[in-house]
């Protein structure tokens, strides 16, 4: 995020020759020390590396006029609060302090006001906390079926770019590996990766070389990635603020987005909490069957064939087509072409370890908005129950549909690539 902010500031201040420097962990500190000697006018940094420079006396903040905390609720959380207090103690009291965040819980707001004099709150007013142009769905599923359902969703919805959020680093690694085994182009990102590796993965994702980014909440904060059409919460987050930041990766710059959240029966209470906080009721999504997933792939092949025909850039292929039409029926030839282009679902087994559900909220009889119970009633997918053991998914993992309860929409085919296994 520090890199992205500094790049944006550079673009904004280019005409004024503003000197900007980003400092963060994982970057060679000697180079940063040399750059600091050039007296940058704006420094964008992570708390840990800023403290490092302060302690080394390579960074003095005596003349700072403006102090900005981006993602302020996270910066003032218990994990960062001591670092932020230490940094603020080195900055003049006669300064302007600006805090930015999509969410600001009351407890964090009270901490924030301790650092500010006569603070003013500026809100971008909306009826809900989440963006109106993001369609929000939930899928009720036992743990062992989640990956097959996710695969079918990907095959039918065909997202342009997708981010899948997992609760743990192990979950992210296993999901990324499983998706690649099934033929998707996916990479994982979490806190254990080196800064260089994270930068490389994000660069590939922004360039469209990776279609699916699997991430822990580290990627939910501040990353400005345009073109993300779908967000999948493979694990529902423990707090509603994280949900808001996660799905905010899609539906940006006025574009439409889709967010799908997987919920196990024991986690339905968290769904109700998220809905009450965001003032937005999610719509139940019925997972598609394997046949519907294959149909989605056939539609993608058909659209690709139509697009190639409309471009009319066929050259010598016409001569071969004419020759074949003398021997075969035109319908049979087109059907054969579609079959060749269709990527049918893989049935290669994958290993996804089961995660424990979040602690029960409100007991087993908890009912969220709309009276949804934590039990299995009303779920129209497969009805096997989780066992708490590591699971091996060996069924064909075709894509999942955006079919809603009572509807039969299949979702818009797009361009998610699948490489050959």
Overview of the structural elements:
There is one protein chain. This protein is an alpha/beta fold. The chain contains 14 helices and 13 strands. Helix 3 (about 45-55) crosses helix 5 (about 80-90), helix 10 (about 240-245) packs across helix 11 and helix 12 (about 290-310) crosses helix 14 (about 330-340). It starts with a helix and ends in a 28-residue tail after the last strand. The model is unreliable at about 360-415 (pLDDT under 50).
Strand content: 5-15%
> Which stretches of 5+ consecutive residues score pLDDT under 50?
362-415
Write down the overall geometry: globular
| Alpha-carbon Rg, integer | 25 Å
Count of separate DSSP helical elements? 14
Whole-number mean pLDDT: 80
What is the β-strand count? 13
Largest sheet: 7 strands, parallel
Order of strands across the main sheet: 7-8-6-9-10-5-11
Q: Specify the helix fraction band.
A: 25-40%
Structural class: alpha/beta
Spatial gap, N to C terminus: 34 Å
Q: What is the H/E order?
A: HEHEHEHHEHEHEHEHEEHEHEHHHEE
Q: What topology emerges from the helices and strands here?
A:
Blueprint: H1 2-12, E1 20-23, H2 29-36, E2 42-45, H3 47-56, E3 66-70, H4 72-75, H5 81-89, E4 96-100, H6 106-114, E5 134-140, H7 146-157, E6 162-165, H8 169-181, E7 186-189, H9 195-206, E8 212-215, E9 230-233, H10 240-247, E10 257-263, H11 268-278, E11 283-284, H12 290-311, H13 317-325, H14 330-341, E12 350-352, E13 391-393
Helix pairs in contact: 3-5, 7-12, 10-11, 12-14
């Amino acid at each position: 995020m520090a890199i992205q902010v500094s790049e944006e500031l550079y673009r904004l201040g280019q005409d004024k020759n503003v000197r900007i420097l980003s400092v963060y962990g994982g970057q060679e500190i000697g180079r940063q020390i040399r750059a600091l000697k050039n007296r940058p006018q704006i420094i964008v940094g992570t708390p840990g590396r800023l403290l490092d420079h302060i302690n080394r006396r390579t960074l003095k903040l005596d003349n700072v006029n403006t102090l900005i905390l981006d993602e302020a609720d996270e910066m003032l959380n218990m994990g960062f609060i001591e670092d932020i207090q230490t940094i603020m103690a080195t900055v003049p009291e006669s300064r302007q302090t600006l805090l930015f965040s999509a969410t600001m819980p009351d407890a964090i707001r009270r901490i924030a006001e301790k650092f500010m004099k006569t603070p003013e709150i500026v809100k971008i007013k909306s009826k809900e906390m989440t963006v109106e142009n993001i369609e929000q769905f939930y899928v009720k599923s036992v743990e062992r079926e989640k990956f097959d359902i996710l695969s079918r969703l990907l095959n039918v919805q065909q997202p342009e770019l997708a981010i899948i959020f997992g609760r743990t680093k192990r979950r992210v690694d296993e999901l990324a590996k499983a998706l690649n085994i099934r033929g998707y182009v996916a990479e994982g990102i979490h806190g254990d990766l080196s800064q260089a590796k994270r930068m490389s993965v994000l660069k590939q994702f922004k360039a469209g070389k990776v279609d699916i980014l699997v991430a822990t909440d580290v990627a939910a904060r501040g990353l400005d990635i345009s073109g993300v059409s779908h967000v999948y919460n493979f694990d529902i987050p423990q707090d509603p603020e994280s949900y808001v930041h996660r799905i905010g990766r899609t539906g940006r710059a006025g574009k439409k987005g889709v967010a799908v959240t997987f919920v196990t029966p024991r986690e339905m209470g968290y769904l109700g909490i998220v809905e009450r906080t965001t003032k937005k009721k999610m719509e139940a999504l019925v997972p598609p069957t394997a046949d519907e997933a294959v149909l989605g792939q056939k539609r993608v092949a058909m659209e690709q064939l139509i697009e190639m025909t409309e471009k009319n850039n066929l050259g010598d292929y016409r001569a071969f087509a004419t020759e074949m039409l003398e021997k075969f029926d035109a319908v049979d030839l087109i059907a054969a072409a579609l079959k060749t282009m269709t990527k049918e679902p893989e049935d290669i087994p994958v290993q996804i370890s089961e995660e424990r559900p979040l602690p029960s909220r409100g007991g087993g009889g908890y009912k969220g908005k709309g009276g949804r119970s934590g039990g299995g009633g009303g779920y129209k997918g497969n009805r096997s129950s989780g066992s708490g053991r590591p699971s091996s998914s060996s069924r064909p993992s075709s894509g999942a549909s955006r079919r809603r309860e009572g509807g039969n929409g299949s979702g818009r085919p797009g361009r998610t690539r699948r490489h050959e296994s």
